[in-house]
Specification:
Helices cover 56% and strands 5% of the residues. The protein is mostly helical.
Length: 538
């Protein structure tokens, strides 16, 4: 007698409506289950803790004491990608391979969900982790935006990059699980991606970096002028953030459809994959396009004729001119300037003075990352621009503030300008009595300038330079003069300030020696340096 067995259902065949409803319910439950496992997994919890520690450490550095938001919105991208993105890739890959690792793959064929639906559940399980990422990124940027002295504008495209990268990396993990059963491929790929990212950031100088927008994230384009970068006003930035986000979304669609098509070739998935590929290619090419000619012209004008893009506000006898978005810093600039002027004779403190924000905008025509080849400091154009704007010999402030170095540099420039009335672009050695006077005036201006001078001295091993907003050169204060400045700072400020006013003409003269200054101020002169030789003093 022959027994006829029922035909085994084809998982790829279109199920009846009742079965589709059951599959949707099962899909929802499975995606919730996998999402909960992913978020509460010890690896994910550890990554979240490390990310919070990293963001707190970033927030506590001088980089964001006075954050420029169009640069600060990029700070979280790398740690988010490497920590949460890496976790999503590895954990999603292990989740897909769980049945193969535990030897239960055969039992899945009797479940209500075929492979494609289970793959979709693993992909949907990534969404809650991306939402947690978005919440962390949002809290971080809100905290920075509410800090005293925060300036600039946040880019939503930059903020969305982190959560999208988490989804992208997780989708890669799901795809790898459908392509290979090896559990080492995911961690190995993440190691390679981490190495590429770190090498790109650490070994390639920002001033020479070619467009690296084909990576999931890019290094920050703005920040510390001491390291060759500069924060730019929003209207001068050329980061293709919107195109890059579309590029990532295209990649996400392409990888997602590739994972869903594994073993099946459905027309809808083929169309979705083709659209994802087209979007990825189009957005990827668009990222490499040169910036608009108007931005190139605006950056050139901002470098040589900053007054054409600035607004000035006057506080008593001092005019402060800033690029759009940077005016909140005027109050802090004025505190430093007043800290210097309070110790100079009244007739000098009352003279008109100007502080103008300046940038050296990289050549945007060569690439669109915002870090091209910077032109030389255009001192002659600055002088001409100041005269045309009725702010002759304006002092220079940059787009970097709050680190101590910037405050001390501005204070030193103000002190020297009061003495010499020389304007921007002056470089040389501040030696003998005049150097001591400038150094003391700068250091005593505020608590920040004193701490900044200490940081500058600790980092130099000798003298210090009052640089012009990080543009190089500067007014160099030699080690011997700096030693006498420390001696004066140990004395009561009012006592030293009274002697400075009493002997101003003598102390500010270029011919007065450091020994004569020490006698006038009632402190011992530092021992002479054997290698000083004949100094060319400003």
């Amino acid at each position: 007698m022959t027994q006829t067995l029922p035909a085994r259902p084809n998982p790829a065949a279109e199920p009846p409506a009742s079965d589709r409803a059951a599959r949707r319910r099962a899909l929802t439950h499975l995606s919730r289950f996998e999402a909960a496992r992913l978020i509460r997994h010890p690896g994910t919890v550890l990554a979240l803790v490390v990310l919070l520690v990293v963001l707190c450490a970033i927030t506590d550095t001088r980089t964001v004491h006075f954050p420029v938001l169009q640069d600060a919105d990029q700070l979280a991208q790398m740690p988010v990608a490497l920590l949460l993105g890496g976790t999503a890739l590895i954990q999603s890959n292990l989740a897909v391979l769980r049945s193969h690792r535990h030897g239960t793959a055969g039992t899945l064929d009797v479940l209500v969900l075929p492979t494609r639906w289970r793959t979709a559940a693993h992909l949907l399980a990534l969404v809650p982790l991306a939402m947690v990422t978005a919440l962390i990124v949002a809290v971080h940027i809100v905290y920075l935006a509410t800090r005293t002295g925060a300036v600039g504008t946040v880019s939503l495209d930059e903020l969305a990059t982190g959560p999208v990268v988490v989804l992208l990396f997780g989708a890669v993990g799901v795809l790898l699980g459908r392509v290979t059963r090896s559990v080492v491929v995911g961690p190995l790929l993440m190691v390679v991606l981490t190495a590429v990212a770190l090498l790109t950031v650490s070994l390639i100088a920002p001033s020479s970096r070619k467009p690296d927008w084909f990576l999931p994230f890019t290094a920050s384009s703005g920040g510390d002028p001491l390291y060759g970068t500069v924060s730019l006003p929003v209207n001068l930035m050329t980061r293709p953030t919107g195109r890059h986000l579309v590029y990532l979304l295209g990649l996400l669609a392409l990888i997602t459809t590739a994972a869903l098509m594994r073993g099946e070739r459905r027309r809808g998935l083929l169309v979705a994959g083709a659209v994802g590929l087209a979007v990825t290619v189009a957005a990827g090419v668009a990222q490499t396009l040169p910036p608009d000619a108007s931005i190139v012209a605006a950056r050139s004008a901002a470098t040589t004729r900053p007054s054409s893009q600035q607004r000035c506000q006057r506080i008593e006898n001092v005019a402060y001119c800033t690029f759009p978005g940077f005016s909140p810093w005027v109050t802090d600039w004025n505190t430093v300037v007043r800290g210097v002027l309070r110790r100079v004779p009244d007739q000098l403190a009352a003279q008109p003075l100007a502080v103008r924000q300046r940038i050296i905008a990289p050549n945007a025509s060569s690439q669109n990352t915002g870090s091209g080849v910077a032109p030389p400091v255009p001192v002659a154009q600055w002088h001409a621009d100041d005269v045309a704007a009725d702010t002759p010999d304006a002092l220079t402030a940059g787009t970097w503030w709050g680190d101590g170095w910037s405050e001390t540099g501005l204070a030193g420039r103000v002190a020297y300008e009061v003495i010499s009335r020389s304007g921007p672009g002056v470089s040389g050695e501040l030696c003998q009595s005049r150097g001591v006077l400038v150094g003391w005036l700068a250091a005593q201006a505020t608590a920040g300038t004193k701490a900044g001078l200490r940081a500058m001295a600790d980092g130099s091993g000798g003298g210090v330079a009052f640089t012009e907003a990080g543009f190089g050169g500067g007014l160099y204060l030699p080690a011997r003069e700096l030693a006498m400045v420390w001696t004066l700072l140990d004395q009561p400020a009012d006592k030293v300030g009274g002697l400075v006013l009493q002997h101003w003409d003598k102390l500010s003269a270029r011919t007065t020696t450091i020994e004569q200054a020490a006698a006038l101020l009632g402190v011992p002169a530092p021992p002479a340096q054997g290698s000083d030789g004949e100094q060319q003093c400003l």
